[in-house]
Amino acid sequence: MIRMLFPAGMVSVLMLVSSHSYAQNIVIGVVPQQSPLVLFKKWQPLAKFLSEQTGYKVQFKTEKSIPEFENVLYQGGYDIAYMNPYHYVVANKRQGYQAALRRKGDIRGILVSRLDDDISSINKGAEFLFPSPNAFAATLVMKYELKHKFNVDVEALGHYKYVNSHDSVYKGVARKIGDLGGGVERTFNNFKSSSDKPFLKVLYTTKGYPSHPIAYKADMPEEVKEKLTEAFLSLPQGILDNLSMQEIQLTDDKEYDAIREIAKSLMTE
């Protein structure tokens, strides 16, 4: 076996060069729960703040649809990723992403309807709209609870469509493209369409789960992660308000074990 030995000083230099080159351009990928333009307006101030605080060039990136985002994420295409809890457990398994931070509070799925509907609208003849197959609270958890609490097996009935984003779900229900739609509290609160939102209400809310994590790619140097984490924790309230986050807190991989359990249950039923 051939070994390559380096003097201690050279090892330090190599680590410094690696860290420096990695940090020249850091891409933060954000799951497209809303349109790319809306997300740019919300997340670009955060990317700018991180760049100013760390000295790294942090670039915001999203995709046109959640499936496209999943494809890039699962290939390790982002240095930092903000994703739903199900995306995280898959990205952790495939690419070693490590959860570091998350919004304080839990994520809950919601089922929206038009104003004139009531709980009886959750029936086997309803047409459901969901953002994407693997949207955690809006699709996976919602389907699970519809089946176990209302005896409505959406998958078996086949009365559903995927419409790419949460905003598209809300618009679709308001415009009678579908009867009921899956989303989450935060995106519904951020949904500002004056021609659609007045016709909508939240019909049902799921139980809570750990919120979307911010995770670092496995090969990111520790010193880079430490600087970024420090900057995330010092975000001005104005930027947090723009993202509908009251506070960001530390998290770790273990907190998402509960998501692994429910994902296993959802996938095996």
Walkthrough of the structure:
- This protein is an alpha/beta fold.
- It folds into 2 domains: 154 residues, Periplasmic binding protein-like II (D-Maltodextrin-Binding Protein, domain 2), CATH 3.40.190.10; 102 residues, 3-Layer(aba) Sandwich (D-Maltodextrin-Binding Protein, domain 2), CATH 3.40.190.10.
- It has 11 helices and 11 strands.
- The strands form 2 sheets. The protein has a 6-stranded mixed sheet with strand order 2-1-3-10-4-11. It has a 5-stranded mixed sheet with strand order 7-6-8-5-9.
- Strand 1, helix 2 and strand 2 form a beta-alpha-beta unit.
- It is globular, with a radius of gyration of 20 Å.
- The chain starts with 7 loop residues before the first helix and ends with a helix.
- This is Phosphate/phosphite/phosphonate ABC transporter substrate-binding protein.
